[in-house]
Specification:
The protein has 5 helices and no strands. It has 103 residues and is mainly α. It has a domain at 64-102. α3 crosses α5 (88-97) and α4 (77-86) packs antiparallel against α5 (88-97). The longest helix has 17 residues, at 2-18. It starts with a helix and ends in a 6-residue tail after the last helix. One of its GO terms (cellular component) is extracellular matrix. Disulfide bonds join 73-79. One of its GO terms (biological process) is regulation of bone mineralization. Keywords: Calcium, Chondrogenesis, Developmental protein, Differentiation, Disulfide bond, Gamma-carboxyglutamic acid, Metal-binding, Osteogenesis, Phosphoprotein, Secreted, Signal.
């Protein structure tokens, strides 16, 4: 009986130490943890929002060719599956190059 008491006490101590729930994890149980859609961008000033839009347009216009082809391939499921096996370059060439007249 004494030999069983020590493992039970150790198990109870380990369970109490490992299963303790702190109050920091209670943040996910808040009533409304998300921001309303109308107020989602209110923390960004209009000036920074304008700059961000301009920078995004610049990034879109100066995208490398491999990234454009990869995005086109990601939107087409057959191309994406082919890319998983043979790579994005081969998949893009198979599904999109022939349509544009190239071989």
């Amino acid at each position: 009986m004494k030999s069983l008491l020590l493992p039970c006490l150790l198990a109870a101590w380990a369970m109490a130490a490992l299963c303790y729930e702190s109050h920091e994890s209670m943040e996910s149980y808040e009533i409304n943890p998300f921001i309303n859609r109308r107020h989602a961008n209110t923390f960004i000033s209009p000036q920074w929002g304008w700059r961000a839009k301009v920078q995004e347009r610049i990034r879109e216009s100066t995208k490398p060719a491999y990234e454009i082809s990869r995005e086109a391939c990601d939107d087409f499921k057959l191309c994406e599956r082919y890319a998983m096996v043979y790579g994005y370059n081969a998949a893009y060439n198979r599904y999109f190059r022939q349509r544009r007249g190239g071989k």
